[in-house]
């Protein structure tokens, strides 16, 4: 009886916590435009892991730099920085985002630019 209960509890935990399928790049790109701020933040933080899809991700994260929520803008900037040189096309958007009203976003933009083009934007130069 105890073994059965333990097995049932372990199965329930596995179903609740461990069996979710990772979202596709397309799903994450849709989430980046979702109504829920949390979904947009998660997407901005997860998308840079998909470096093979950088050609689609960079424009989406660049657009997210203009999101109404500062945490989304900050996550988008850091995400672009995590893509490194693959995010070169985002430099104009990031340069514009250096004027953001939120200091944390501006710092994230500074970090991103230094990771994308360290010659042009050395760390700590802004």
Description of the molecule:
By secondary structure, this protein is mainly alpha-helical. It has a single domain, classed as Leucine-rich Repeat Variant (Alpha Horseshoe). Helix content is 63%, strand content 0%. The chain has seven helices and no strands. It has helices spanning 2-18, 25-31, 37-46, 54-64, 70-83, 91-97, 103-116. Helix 3 runs parallel beside helix 5 and helix 5 (70-83) runs parallel beside helix 7 (103-116). The radius of gyration is 18 Å and the shape is elongated. 33% of the residues are buried.
Keywords for this structure?
mainly alpha, Leucine-rich Repeat Variant, 63% helix
The main β sheet shows up as: none
- For the CA atoms, what is the radius of gyration? 18 Å
Please state the average pLDDT score. 89
Q: What portion of residues belong to β-strands?
A: under 5%
What structural category characterises the helix and strand content? mainly alpha
The end-to-end distance, rounded to whole angstroms, is 66 Å
- CATH class, anyone? Mainly Alpha
Blueprint (SSEs and pairs):
Layout (H helix, E strand, L loop, with lengths): L1 H17 L6 H7 L5 H10 L7 H11 L5 H14 L7 H7 L5 H14 L10
Helix pairs in contact: 3-5, 4-5, 5-7, 6-7
């Amino acid at each position: 009886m105890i073994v059965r209960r333990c097995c049932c509890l372990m199965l329930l935990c596995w179903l609740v916590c461990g069996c979710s399928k990772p979202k596709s790049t397309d799903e994450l790109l849709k989430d980046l435009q979702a109504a829920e701020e949390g979904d947009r933040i998660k997407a901005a933080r997860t998308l840079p892991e998909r470096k093979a899809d950088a050609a689609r991700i960079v424009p989406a994260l660049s657009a997210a730099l203009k999101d109404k929520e500062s945490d989304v803008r900050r996550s988008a900037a850091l995400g672009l920085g995590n893509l490194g040189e693959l995010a070169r096309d985002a430099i104009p958007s990031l340069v514009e985002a250096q004027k953001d009203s939120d200091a944390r976003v501006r710092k994230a933009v500074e970090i991103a630019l230094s990771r994308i083009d360290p010659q042009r934007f050395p760390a700590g130069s802004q």
